[in-house]
Amino acid sequence: MRENGRAFDRIRLLPRVAVDVAGRTARTRLLGLPVPVPLAVAPMAYQTWLHPDGEVAAASAAAVAGVPFVVSMMASRTVEEVAATGAATVMQLYWLRDRGLFRELVGRAEAAGCVALMLTVDVPLLGRRLRDLRGGLVRPANVVAANLGRAGGGLDAVGGAGTSEVAAHTGVLFDPSLSWADVAWIRSVTRLPLVLKGILDPDDAALAVAAGVDTVVVSNHGGRQLDGAVATAVALPAVVDAVDGRCEVLVDSGVRGGVDVLKALALGATGVLVGRPLLWGLAAGGAAGAARVLDLIGEELHEAMALAGCPDVDSARRLRTSVAGGDR
Asked: 4, 30, 39, 126: which sits with the fewest CB atoms below 10 Å from its CB?
């Protein structure tokens, strides 16, 4: 987790000068949609744990900002409630042992007007999260995975130091047998664009393109899955090269502000997913707090683009960078 932030910090931008940036714009397309800034809100579970309005408040902030909102399969408000906020909603899914429930969720996403499906592929099982285990992580009784109906309530027998209710719950729900054949099947059963989240190896990015995926997300799950996995800012350029313009490439894990967004663009990303900062805003101030975080990131990006001599997103992607003394 720490290395994700450090990797972004180590990137150095080579700004251009004597460029007219008076009329600069960060407008672009993301997930096939026009957006005012190249970012979307990442999928994050159980947001009512932080604020009573949870995902509805966070999605309302995204709607005001005009950016897509990815609702977690493990969200504490339903995809229908989130979509009703007016946000461009993406439904995030894990590969479930219960295929009928998986198909039901795909159908609900389509019926709710979601703009895409996002399959997270880096969780065959939940990573060993020591903080959760030490604290004996147990959700409050009123915080459930609302999209999963009866399966969303958790396991009553789990609790106490050395255990994690979330890990036990997902261990029952998630199927570790996910293969590229399954990805191709998912592609075949929905008309929605398909996003794969959790790509780090460029060979996997190429396989995703071959499977008909529309967007890949370079992600190590915020550093909470395989400890010691490569930082996303390090993995990003090779993934961009591997897809060679055949699909969009987003990046998350370690994005904390507008300068990080600019660095991601300079490394070839189509845009970013923002996670933790939005949760901090939600916890501090509900929908208004989350909206302020999105505003701040946008303001920081516009300022950074001006100082780097970038009148638009395309010019940001042409910026040169240096990392640990080597130019790219």
From this structure: 126
Written out in words, the top-level CATH class of the domain with range 2-11+19-124+174-318 is: alpha beta
Length of the chain: 328
Say how many C-beta atoms besides its own lie within 10 A of residue 319's C-beta: 20
Phi, psi of 323 (to 5 degrees): -135, 120
Flag whether 275 is marked binding: yes
Closest to 250 (Cα-Cα) out of 68, 9, 59, 15: 68
Domain ranges in the chain are: 2-11+19-124+174-318
pLDDT in tens, 234-274: 999 999 999 999 999 999 999 999 999 999 999 999 999 99
138 in a known ligand binding site: no
Active centre residues (catalytic): 221
pLDDT by residue (tens digit) across 83-135? 999 999 999 999 999 999 999 999 999 999 999 999 999 999 988 888 888 88
- pTM of the predicted protein model: 0.95
List of residues 6+ apart from 208 with CB closer than 8 A: 183, 196, 199, 216, 243, 247
High-pLDDT (> 70) share of the chain, %? 96
Strand 33-35 relative to strand 28-30: parallel, antiparallel, unpaired? antiparallel
Burial class of residue 108 in the structure, from the number of CB atoms within 10 Å of its CB (0-12 exposed, 13-18 middle, 19+ buried) = middle
CB 67 within 8 A of CB 89: no
Res. 137 pLDDT band, cuts 50 70 90: confident
Structure tokens at 220: 């190590």
CB 253 within 8 A of CB 222: yes
Q: Is 223 annotated as a binding residue?
A: no
Q: Are 55 and 75 in contact (CB under 8 A)?
A: yes
